[in-house]
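Quiz preparation item.
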């Protein structure tokens, strides 16, 4: 049996390989030439533009045999492959089992395990390894020191910030991605097509125009925001790439609600526009951008000689999961000839939930959309997406042809356009495979049901909490986020800051005891405990347990005079 036979149980893969090997042999075997010519001239007409194929092979053979080594061969070997493949294979199988066990038993661990001092020391202060050690020992280091302290967002009660919880399919896809080790920035290989396919699926999902739209997979919504706002900046100032902002001496301004994520601020800073280029538009009682205020601000800025260049809409804000009226924003943007960008990091995926899809009405009119696969689709970190109404704008903003990066009509360097011409990265991982895998494994219906379940769980939790007269649930609970604040009667005389601290410490208690991972938010200038449910492992029982723990820690903290709780 060949190596391949041993590894794979997939006959189709074997067949493909055999076929490929067969046609490769054609190239090196003279006797096949005639048959090859006859059989394949019609099927592969382009091969006939390669007159010297056999010449190349014979030259190669000559070079091989004429090289004489006078040096120590061991110092010339570049190989990092295992010397003992079967041992390496056994170790790899073991680690796959460790991974699956880790996910299968996520519920049995604490939601967070603080890193012990000795582990912290080992992780931070290891000497730069001069000589390697067996693969088994490196794996053991992971199992002992890394895996147990890995953050906890695989746990069913991890509800902090906005985190995805990962899947078994994601593990398999990441393993295959690493095996192929493809650079999806350029050339002709399966990873490039997979990325195009995923983007096409997203185009369909968000109903962007089929003739012109396209996109790019990036590390996340923050990176997507940089790329989209760079396109918007170029759209407003076509000379910015050559001349830079200083020479053009214009002041561009962007508009976004006060609830907007900080990634927009970072993008504006990075693009040389400065934080002052962002106008924070007030919100209504549902935390949606006030459209009239937006119109007024645009008008005022124009009169001041500033150039409004971008409106940022939110499809799911971090604090409360609010959706701006995207349809109205699209209209204002069109009327004023301003770029319309949407941050839909997690919220845009309500597109998969028929009962909530109306929330993104108007999204399909955006010029650009940024969102994450690693949040509500649970694709392993990191994968986000840029979707543009006009893919040509992405080329116009980033394409920088160089003679060492020329795509060809055929050969490995074909399959134009290359992704490296559409963004910042030249070398790019195949982030698309894990997205593709997730969507194929579960299908959009099941993924949508999981999202709907999280939103229903948020309502369930809000109901549980509102049974206590000293717990204030922040309203509206519009999506998958519940903010609440304990105001115990015992602290009736305390000032609001003391109650803020009380709630903050309660969050620390819950985290340190490994019960659950909430985060906090500031709403109406008061600290709230924030539960954001983007977790396919959470069940209703998890929320019962959580509320009981909240009450327990609250009482313990009151009884101990609001001190830290140690066990
Ligand atoms: C998470 C998030 C971002 C940032 O996305 P990253 O993938 O972490 O870069 C931006 N906006 C919103 C609303 C988010 O939830």
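Solution:
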């Amino acid at each position: 049996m060949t190596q391949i036979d041993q590894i794979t149980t997939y006959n189709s893969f074997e067949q493909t390989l055999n076929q490929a090997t067969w046609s490769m042999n054609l190239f090196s075997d003279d006797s096949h030439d005639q048959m090859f010519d006859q059989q394949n001239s019609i099927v592969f007409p382009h091969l006939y533009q390669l007159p010297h194929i056999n010449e190349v092979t014979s030259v190669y053979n000559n070079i091989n045999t004429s090289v004489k080594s006078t040096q120590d061969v061991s110092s010339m070997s570049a190989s990092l492959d295992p010397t003992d493949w079967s041992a390496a294979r056994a170790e790899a199988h073991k680690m796959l089992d460790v991974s699956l066990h880790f996910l299968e038993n996520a519920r049995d661990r604490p939601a967070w395990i603080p890193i012990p001092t000795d582990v912290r020391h080992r992780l931070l202060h290891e000497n730069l390894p001069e000589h390697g050690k067996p693969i088994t020992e490196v794996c053991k280091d992971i199992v002992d020191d890394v895996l147990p302290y890995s953050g906890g967002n695989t746990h069913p009660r991890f509800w902090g910030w906005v985190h995805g919880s990962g899947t078994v399919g994601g593990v398999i896809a990441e393993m295959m991605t690493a095996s192929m080790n493809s650079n999806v920035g350029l050339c002709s290989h399966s990873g490039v097509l997979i990325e195009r396919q995923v983007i096409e699926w997203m185009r369909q999902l968000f109903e962007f125009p089929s003739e012109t739209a396209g996109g790019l997979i990036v590390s996340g919504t923050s990176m997507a925001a940089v790329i989209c706002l760079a396109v918007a900046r170029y759209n407003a100032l076509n000379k910015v790439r050559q001349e830079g902002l200083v020479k053009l001496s214009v002041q561009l301004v962007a508009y976004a609600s006060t609830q907007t994520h900080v990634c927009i601020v970072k993008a504006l800073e990075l693009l040389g526009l400065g934080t002052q280029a962002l106008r924070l538009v007030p919100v209504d009682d549902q935390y949606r951008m006030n459209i009239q205020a937006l119109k007024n601000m645009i008008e005022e800025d124009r009169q001041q000689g500033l150039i409004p260049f971008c409106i940022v809409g939110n499809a799911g804000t971090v604090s409360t999961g609010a959706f701006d009226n995207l349809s109205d924003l699209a209209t204002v943007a069109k009327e004023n000839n301003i770029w319309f960008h949407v941050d839909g990091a997690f919220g845009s995926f309500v597109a998969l939930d028929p009962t909530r899809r109306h929330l993104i009405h108007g999204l399909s009119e955006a010029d650009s959309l940024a969102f994450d696969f690693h949040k509500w689709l649970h694709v392993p970190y990191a994968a986000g997406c840029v979707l543009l109404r006009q893919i040509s704008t992405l080329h116009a903003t980033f394409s920088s042809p160089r003679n060492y990066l020329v795509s060809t009509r055929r050969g490995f360097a074909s399959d134009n356009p290359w992704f490296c011409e559409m963004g910042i990265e030249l070398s790019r991982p195949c982030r698309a495979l894990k997205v593709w895998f997730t969507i194929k494994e579960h299908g959009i219906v099941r993924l949508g049901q999981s999202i709907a379940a999280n939103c229903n769980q948020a309502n369930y939790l809000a109901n549980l909490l509102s049974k206590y007269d000293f717990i204030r649930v922040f309203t509206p609970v519009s999506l998958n986020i519940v903010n609440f604040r304990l105001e115990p009667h015992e602290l009736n005389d305390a000032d609001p800051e003391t109650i803020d601290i009380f709630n903050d410490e309660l969050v620390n208690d819950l985290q340190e005891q490994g019960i659950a991972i909430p985060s906090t938010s500031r709403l109406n200038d008061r600290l709230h405990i924030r539960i954001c449910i983007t977790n396919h492992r959470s069940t209703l029982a998890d929320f019962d347990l959580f509320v009981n723990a909240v009450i327990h820690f609250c009482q313990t903290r009151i009884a101990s005079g609001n001190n830290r709780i140690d066990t």
